[in-house]
Amino acid sequence: MWNPAHLFMSPIDGTYANRSYGTLYWVLVITQFVYFFSSLLIMFQSLKTVHSLNQRKQLATAVVGIFVLTGFSVTDMLINVLLAPWLPVVPGLMSLGILLSDCCFVLAIYRYGAFDLISMAQRDIFEHMTTGIIVVDESGKVLEMNRGALPFVKSAKGEMFEMEKFLSPLQTQGEVYEFLYQYRHHPLDRLQTEITLPENSRHVSIQISPVLDNHKSLLGRVITFHDVTELRKLVDEMNRKNEALHERNLELVTIQEELFRLNQKLEQMAITDPLTGCYNRRYLMQQLEHELLLNMRYKIPFSVFLFDIDHFKMINDQYGHLVGDEVLRSTADIVRSKLRRTDILARYGGEEFTIYLPHTNREQAESLAARMMIAINENSVTAGADEVHVTISMGIVSEDGEELAFDDPKQYLRELFSRADTALYKAKHEGRNRMILAR
């Protein structure tokens, strides 16, 4: 016994038959009583909260054991320690108390199944869970299986479970040969596949997990069967809805494309003349306001043509408006063929047309106008047995970018077209089929 400096006990007359107890002994006694009463307090609190009759009996038996141990400890201390000078020593009281309390503790454990209850609960859960489970050893022999596995597996305990034979009559999702290859040659891997039972078309997910020892050696496998029919139905339903949504999206895209084309067509109709395909006067004026600001800022030269078809009213009166319309279309096509992509041809009104020519000085404008007039003179429109030839009269305004300056672009445009119109009518007055450069 550990008795440093006789702090636990010290002999009287040189023998421990008569002894006195030191400080360490009383510290130990107090500590034991603290443990006893703490244990009792915890168990009494548990008795108030536990509703299971079996657990209440376990706790009550354990409380009795603690009371027995505490009672014998107190009796031993009273008779053999505190009253030792007056009473004879009674040996074995503490040992008897330990024996009787241990009997109570053993009774609490084994009679009321403190550990069996957990095992029974685990077994009950294993048997009644909806997921089917079978446990096989490394050779494939069935060691254990629950009720949930019975609808899927016909093998019994002690029989061999052959995965190839099991899967052969079933429909599988994915590559079954790859799954079987992994099952045979990679037993340490976790595997998963899905089968369809032919008798009721139920979908079952199969998962295989290895059971390993401490050295990572294979002891067996746990194979689980989980019915995923409802999940598969939800997935299939979601796929059908996604397909329907995809088709609707395609329809919406088609409608959007059609609307885009219609909008483009409407936009084109809003800015073009339907007869000749040229831009209309409103679009021309909007563009010119913007172009004039750029020309003034960057000193860009430009020219504007204003022309009409000579004696057009006579053509309408003699050959009719259909021939007149064809003359307008044909003249616009001839002029358009002579222009650049940056030039703007617009129908100004009636038989009058205007052309905006950026980056075009006076000499270039006169040269282009001459080529246009020659091409129009050489063109003809069939009117029954006759060939209708037309000429044009043209007024030209050319601006040098270096001298261009204005405050109001709209006012400047009015003045510019007034100058072009004056030059046009001067060309008509001088005999038509000619161009006049405005001053």
Word description of this protein:
By secondary structure, the protein is an alpha+beta fold. The protein folds into three domains: 4-114; 131-227, 2-Layer Sandwich (Beta-Lactamase); 281-437, 2-Layer Sandwich (Alpha-Beta Plaits), CATH 3.30.70.270. The chain is 52% helix and 20% strand. It contains twelve helices and 15 strands. The protein has helices spanning 23-49, 53-82, 93-110, 116-128, 163-167, 176-185, 229-271, 281-298, 312-319, 321-337, 362-378, 409-429, and strands at 9-12, 15-21, 132-137, 142-145, 171-173, 191-196, 203-212, 218-227, 302-309, 344-349, 352-358, 381-383, 386-388, 392-399, 435-437. The strands form four sheets. The protein has a six-stranded antiparallel sheet, with helices on both faces. Strands 10-11-9-14-15 form a five-stranded mixed sheet, with helices on both faces. A two-stranded antiparallel ribbon has the order 1-2. Strand 7 (203-212) and strand 8 form a beta hairpin. The longest helix has 43 residues, at 229-271. The mean pLDDT is 86.
